[in-house]
């Protein structure tokens, strides 16, 4: 980390903030004129023509802390709309490589479709930029190994956009309660993340003239344009991993953080699920990702599922599209139920409930506040983006670092691979390989279209 890159924030920006406080540091960070010395660029910003707008949202948030100088998107309409929101004077690009070469930004936000996250992130890190990348970070397990290596080699600050990790009043408190024994021992997590649509096949059309569809597709297999592929890419394995890597990147992350903070990952994965009607029974996914088999032009990620992941400690995560236990009147479409031998707690983005929560004393809450401070790696309570910029200032690790997110995404990908193969799988989390299963190991990576792999596209 260059000393001059660390000095842009005033030391007083976080002074006075205490563990357990609300976002008091954010306004101080925003007010510091030094923050504007950092040159910020946004890659993938969404807009009125596309459905995916998180890229624009995170870029706008980052612009509170640094000076936005450039925007890059394969859709000219999106770059123009975003530029107008920032005074109309931003330098606009289609190709992020050209932007990195000409602008040399200090900080980059990445809000592209998921299949572009790792290739672009690697190029940004190797250019010397600190990076905030939307989740899910990876398309495959091997991509996680790849991006982890580059973060370690470059030493840049890298934050993944799993904002639930910054929610101290709910998710962090739930994690603290589990790790502090408030639900007892032998804790399991039951997770619901919602199902996915199974529509298709769809008609293809001509891409808009001001959209570079070839560059949008990038490392994925060549495909004709259709609105569904672009707007709802999350339901195509070519570009994402369905609900498993969408909401799973949030809830599986929280559950694994709580249950297995010292473990590298699960060792056994088993379960069942359903795919859209466009996917034949016993479809060969290895051949599909190798470019040797094809599917109709429709959604192809799992529509429903019930998967169990077991850790060496004996703890289990059960991942479902909708969790039900009729005999106990348990029924929820989205959230996490932690259950141990002392009781159970339920958490989602709206609430944290359960008898162990109701029975907390003032002394208990003080202990939990101390535990939450530990989970925050010594940082005060603040927004996810503020945490990123605070880490750029002091060189610390962000709350959603590449190592924890790679572990989370590995579990998400393990779930999808178990669904694809339709059988129980054994995983060696230290070696990061399946045990005696070359077909499963073959699904840890994808064949990139020529000229678009992470290595060649970053270096070209």
TrEMBL record:
SUPFAM superfamilies: Glyceraldehyde-3-phosphate dehydrogenase-like, C-terminal domain, NAD(P)-binding Rossmann-fold domains. One of its GO terms (molecular function) is nucleotide binding. Residues 39-161 form the Gfo/Idh/MocA-like oxidoreductase N-terminal domain. It comes from the Bacteria. InterPro entries: Gfo/Idh/MocA-like_OxRdtase_N, Gfo/Idh/MocA_oxidrdct_glycsds, Gfo/Idh/MocA_OxRdtase_bact_C, NAD(P)-bd_dom_sf, TAT_signal, TAT_signal_bac_arc. Residues 202-452 form the Gfo/Idh/MocA-like oxidoreductase bacterial type C-terminal domain. This is NADH-dependent dehydrogenase.
């Amino acid at each position: 980390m260059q000393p001059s890159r660390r000095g842009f924030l005033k030391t007083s920006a976080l002074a006075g903030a205490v563990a357990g406080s609300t976002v008091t540091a954010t306004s101080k960070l925003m007010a510091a004129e030094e923050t504007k010395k950092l040159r910020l660029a946004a890659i993938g910003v969404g807009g009125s023509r596309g459905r995916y707008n998180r890229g624009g949202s995170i870029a706008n948030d980052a612009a509170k802390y640094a000076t936005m100088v450039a925007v890059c998107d394969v859709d000219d309409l999106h770059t123009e709309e975003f530029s107008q929101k920032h005074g109309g004077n931003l330098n606009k690009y289609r190709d992020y490589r050209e932007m990195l070469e000409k602008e040399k930004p200090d900080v980059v936000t990445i809000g592209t479709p998921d299949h572009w996250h790792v290739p672009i992130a690697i190029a940004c890190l190797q250019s010397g930029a600190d990076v905030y990348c939307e989740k899910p970070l990876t398309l495959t397990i091997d991509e996680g190994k790849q991006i982890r290596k580059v973060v370690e080699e470059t030493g840049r600050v890298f934050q993944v956009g799993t904002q639930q990790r910054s929610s101290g009043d709910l998710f962090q408190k739930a994690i603290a309660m589990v790790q502090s024994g408030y639900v007892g021992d032998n804790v399991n997590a039951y997770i619901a993340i919602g199902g996915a649509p199974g529509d298709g096949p769809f008609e293809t059309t001509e891409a808009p003239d001001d959209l570079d569809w070839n560059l949008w597709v990038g490392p994925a297999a060549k495909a004709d344009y259709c609105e569904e592929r672009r707007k709802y890419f999350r339901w195509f394995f070519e570009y994402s991993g369905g609900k498993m890597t969408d909401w799973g990147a949030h809830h599986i992350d929280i559950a694994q953080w709580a249950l297995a903070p010292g473990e590298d990952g699960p060792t056994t994965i088993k379960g069942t699920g359903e795919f859209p009607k466009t996917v034949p029974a016993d479809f060969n996914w290895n051949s599909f990702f190798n470019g040797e088999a094809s599917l109709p032009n429709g959604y192809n990620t799992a529509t429903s599922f019930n998967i169990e992941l077991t850790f060496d400690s004996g703890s289990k995560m059960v991942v479902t599209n909708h969790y039900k236990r009729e005999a106990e009147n348990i029924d929820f479409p989205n959230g996490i139920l932690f259950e141990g031998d002392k009781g159970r707690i339920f958490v989602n983005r709206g609430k944290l409930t359960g008898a162990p929560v109701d029975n907390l004393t003032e002394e208990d809450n003080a202990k939990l506040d101390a535990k939450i401070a530990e989970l925050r790696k010594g940082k005060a309570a603040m927004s996810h983006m503020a945490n990123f910029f605070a880490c750029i200032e002091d060189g610390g690790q962000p709350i959603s670092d590449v190592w924890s997110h790679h572990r989370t995404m590995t579990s998400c990908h393990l779930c999808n691979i178990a669904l694809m193969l339709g059988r129980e799988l054994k995983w060696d989390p230290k070696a990061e390989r399946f045990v005696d299963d070359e077909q499963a190991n073959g699904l840890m990576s994808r064949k990139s279209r020529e000229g678009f792999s992470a290595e060649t596209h970053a270096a070209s």
